[in-house]
Design brief:
Layout lengths: L5 H52 L27 E6 L15 E3 L23 E7 L5 E10 L5 E9 L1 H52 L14 H45 L4 H29 L7 E2 H15 L6 E6 L4 E2 L3 H18 L3 E9 L8 E8 L6 H7 L16 H11 L3 E6 L5 E8 L2
Parallel strand pairs: 7-9
Antiparallel strand pairs: 1-2, 1-5, 3-4, 4-5, 6-8, 9-10, 10-12, 11-12
Helix pairs in contact: 1-2, 3-4, 5-6, 6-8
């Protein structure tokens, strides 16, 4: 998944929502579990509290301080500062008041030692429907306690505030253990969700990847249309793309037909003009007509060729093997220049393809090789190799043609590619070869560069789009 890709956007958005949902769910579950632990803890405290109330309310001739068991069935109530405490505070003056010599009428568990428990009613905690109050308080040595208390009215025996407290660390530890297990479970779930999301994104976008691969195959010439079944959401895209390809081919064919018709329509009038001017002999007007007719023929041929190439370049998926074309041209040129003994060496990568039509490739390389053979002393070298990608990132190839002739100066190289410019009138030709190569290469987005060859003559380097 590359940056700014649809797959990455879907993955990140799904991941973000999954993380948010898991975090919120984890917080809610942790809160619910803590409340459940607190309720269970409060029920345990209320069991002890009811036991105290029952013992306190039981009629007995013994003093109230003697009929309250210390442990209540829990040894921690007798262990000093254990975190488990109970305390009974008398709120009024009853028949037993003052029997202990003026001491405050507060009874507590041995575990409380000489400390005391704060009152929730003094802290403004409201009583529940059952009349009890629950909350967190700070106990002896700053222990955090969970406390429940209730006010008991025994009539003539007096009014009492009964409180039982337990160590809140048990709640925290149990909640912490649950949170750790929850975090590990949700972490594993998050990993599974991420993997599932990645699979869903790849599976859901697979048809788009198939369309992308099919378009690349069409562009490289391996296919002509988008084939196969596509989901309903992107099937219209495939149909419209195929329709666009068909319309493009139809337009190109129509343009080629018009170009051919125009060529034939202009050829006949020009031929008539040339014949009439030739029949007039040495007439200055006839000579001028012949001169201008030749210029018209050249211009018409030039612009018709450009129009044909511009139309041909719009055909999607046309590719040509380069090595066979170069090898065939080398054999042909060796036969043409056999009387001069020109040797042509070819080093071509057999895997390279030119993104264009074969006649155009033959015309470009043929002009370069023919020009090299005309100027070479005994040797011409042709090399075809991959080149660095262009500015737009597309693949390119390089065709290098060297000769061992006398070469050209930098100023002569600038003039050599101009249309009709001949640097040596003794050599056969019209002077159009290099200019045609420049125009054809430019139409394909390529270029032609002239430089000094390592073997002594001129180097022509042609860069073209690769398939």
């Amino acid at each position: 998944m590359r940056a700014n890709s649809l797959a990455l956007r879907l993955f990140l958005s799904a991941t973000a929502w999954a993380v948010v949902i898991l975090v919120i769910t984890g917080i809610i579950l942790s809160s619910l579990y803590r409340q459940a632990v607190e309720r269970a803890f409060d029920r345990r405290l209320n069991v002890y509290l009811r036991t105290l109330v029952a013992e306190l309310a039981t009629p007995d001739d013994s003093s109230s301080s003697e009929k309250i068991p210390q442990s209540l069935g829990e040894p921690l109530f007798e262990l000093p500062l254990s975190g488990w405490y109970w305390q009974i505070t008398r709120l009024d003056s009853g028949k037993d008041a003052g029997k202990d010599g003026g001491k405050a009428d507060i009874r507590s568990s041995r575990s409380l030692w000489d400390g005391g428990l704060p009152h929730l009613q003094d802290q403004g905690v409201a009583a529940s429907a059952s009349g009890s109050r629950e909350g967190y308080v700070s106990g002896p040595e700053d222990q955090r306690l969970r406390l429940t208390e209730r006010t008991i009215d025994l009539g003539e025996d007096g009014q009492f505030l009964v409180a039982v407290a337990g160590d809140a660390a048990e709640i925290s530890e149990e909640t912490r253990a649950f949170d750790q297990a929850l975090a590990m479970t949700f972490a594993a779930l998050a990993i599974v969700l991420l993997l599932t999301t990645m699979f869903q994104v790849r599976f859901g976008l697979a048809p788009l990847k198939r369309i992308s691969d099919s378009l690349a195959a069409i562009r490289s010439g391996a296919a002509e249309r988008l084939e196969g079944e596509f989901p309903d959401e992107i099937a219209p895209l495939a149909r419209e793309t195929n329709a666009l390809i068909d319309a493009n081919k139809e337009i190109v064919e129509r343009a080629r037909t018009h170009v051919g018709n125009l060529a034939h329509a202009l050829k006949t009038p020009l031929s008539v003009m040339v014949n009439e001017a030739t029949a007039r002999g040495s007439d200055p007007l006839a000579a001028k007509v012949l001169e201008q007719a030749d210029i018209m023929r050249d211009q018409v041929a030039r612009h018709l060729e450009r129009a044909r190439l511009a139309a041909g370049l719009k055909v999607i998926g046309t590719v040509t093997e380069v090595a066979p074309v170069v090898t065939a041209l080398a054999r042909t040129m060796e036969k043409i220049h056999r009387d001069r003994g020109i040797a042509i060496d070819v080093h071509a990568d057999g895997k390279l393809q030119f993104r264009g039509e074969q006649p155009d490739l033959e015309e470009m390389i043929g002009n370069l090789v023919d020009n090299a053979c005309k100027w070479a002393t005994s040797r011409v070298a042709i090399a075809v190799e991959p080149n660095q990608p262009g500015a737009d990132g597309r693949k390119t190839l390089r065709v290098v043609v060297d000769d061992d002739g006398k070469g050209l100066t930098p100023a002569e190289r600038e003039q050599a590619a101009k249309r009709g410019r001949r640097l040596d009138e003794t050599k056969p030709g019209s002077g159009l070869g290099l200019s045609i190569v420049v125009e054809l290469a430019g139409l394909y987005g390529g270029s032609l560069t002239l430089a000094a060859a390592p073997i002594g003559g001129l180097r022509a380097e042609l860069v073209l789009p690769a398939g």
